[in-house]
Amino acid sequence: MGKNLKNIPYNNREISWMDFNYRVLEEAIDKNNPIMERAKFLSISSSNLDEFFMVRVAGIMEKIEIRSTDKDSSGLKPKQLLSALTKKIHDFYEKQYLCFHKMILPDLKKDGIEILKWKELDKDQVKFTENFFNMIIFPVLTPLAIDQSRPFPFLANKTLNIAVELDSGKDESNFGIVQVPAILPRFIKLPSKNSKSYILLEDIIIHELPKLFEIYEIKSSCTFRITRDSDLEIDEDAEDLLMEIEKSIKKRKHGALVRLEIGNTKSETIKNFIIDILDASKKEIYISKGPLDFTFLSKFYDEINDKKLKYKDVQPVNPPVGFLNYEDIFKSISEKDKIVYHPFESFDCVIKFVKKAAEDKDVLAIKQTLYRVSGNSPIIAALIKAAENGKQVTVLVELKARFDEEKNIVWAKKLEKAGCHVIYGVPGLKTHCKVLLVVRREKDVIKRYIHLSTGNYNDTTAKYYTDIGYFTCKESFGTDISSLFNFITGYSLHPNYKKIVVAPKNMRDFFIDMVKREIANAKKKLKNGIIIKVNSLVDYKIIEMLYKASCEGVKIKLIVRGVCCLVPGVKGISENIEVRSIVGRLLEHSRIFYFENGGDPKLYMSSADLMPRNLDKRIELAFPIEDADLKNKYIKILNIILKDNFNSRIQNSDTVYLKEGIKGKKILNSQMELFKIFKEDKMDQVEKCKLENSQKFK
What we know:
This protein is α/β, with parallel strands linked by helices. 39% of the residues lie in helices and 21% in strands.
């Protein structure tokens, strides 16, 4: 294999992402999933695509706008990439609508749930709907005529609209616009004797258009939706970063058009009106064969309460095994390091840790990084309580967390008002590491308690994102984390950390060195091997090093949920590399790195994916698991994940992902298996404690 990156097999990031979203759509098609879960997966695939356009496609269009002809690492120029993506996205749309019309709607109907068109309503439903329109919808609507004195209005990002062709009795048509109000539910429940029946809001409005444009005859109408460039450009040298981000958020609503979705219509006149008035180019137009914006199916999921149509509830272990029989969480951590795996084990222990720190008279200070939190965060509430109780509370709130900027600004202001010292991030870097430090006075010493995590301090996503949290009070970790906070909050340089690995200081070099060590061990005929579990693998240098390891005979197993630019199974380059993606009920989010290390395995957890943005433009953290019991437990868990043949898809050398053949094999759903394992582990610990207590009593 040559040193030149051009000779290395490298799958384009955006194309690989589209392949990932296909895997999400496959879950909507898969009849092994309950029907409402399938509807939700269709919603997720639609939401994913929205964000993809707002950020990734917008970025490609900007390159074309400035006439860039630079090739990416896969050898594609911006125009070539956009052409390939457009073809892939049109195919994706076809499959989405095929899924909705031929699979989701018929299977919903079998279970007594219907989404009806106006022409399918019976007399009672028509009467109900007309009354609902007059009483609820009509007062909210604002029909807008488009003519010389009334220009085309500005339409915000992702709003659903109806264009109307009006007959004025003259030779030329007039046009109007009606915005479908987002404040009203997208679907309206209808009276029905034998089923749960619904109609979409836009279908009601379209039928009632004559009431909105009384002096005209309606010739045709058509739904449409626009997507705008929403990637913020932030001047990090601005004197007030908070104000700068608030200004940028407002600009997001006015970003350039990157996609125009038009509902199916026979009228070329109305279609051409929409295209011309929005000045949309051919590459930006997507004609849809059904309702626009499937994200409404997520709320529709919440509407349907029939448990038979959803996954069975699975409760996390609470308290986690490591915290069984401990009233004092500080004492528990002092005795032994703890690892908690969410959502198999409850996130409540993290909330309890912060709450206890806020109330404990011996706690002097709390320092924490926050990237994304829930809408009603108990973590934030505990930090506010700690400040009110006189603790020194320092919180880094990352204002640049994409699409959570507004929420984080609100939290930052509340924390400041309560007396917390709030940092808005480090100039030029996003703070993506998840770190919590509690400083406590114990007798005559100061002790530091630490929680490190692969995922956010978010009690909502912790219920369906798989993430790992690590508790320790080891002095070596305490020194490192204190130094990290000093770097984040002040003018300190990165020290030489004893335990943790930090980006952008040295994380890429660290992982490359670990791979080099496996290569050296392979050459010496020592035990070697690599297992990596991440959300995305994009970084060219790390991919190149993994290829070199494969060429030296190192067996490499990669679990990459989303984007994977590495191509496995290429003769002479990546024959020893296996890539699998797990897409299932839970969102795989934990990052785990395993190196065989000549028979003395090294295990690391991290907040970082292997992407240039994580390794070069973010503050990220990787931390070792050194306790032998914990290390062995999580190596076993990693191997269970590798054996998944229910949620897993294997990537071939042509970059196509296929489900693993299970004929004659026992089906293993690693996510459900881990729920079972943690539950059994807790039961075993409870029985062990009962036995120990009975022996003490004797």
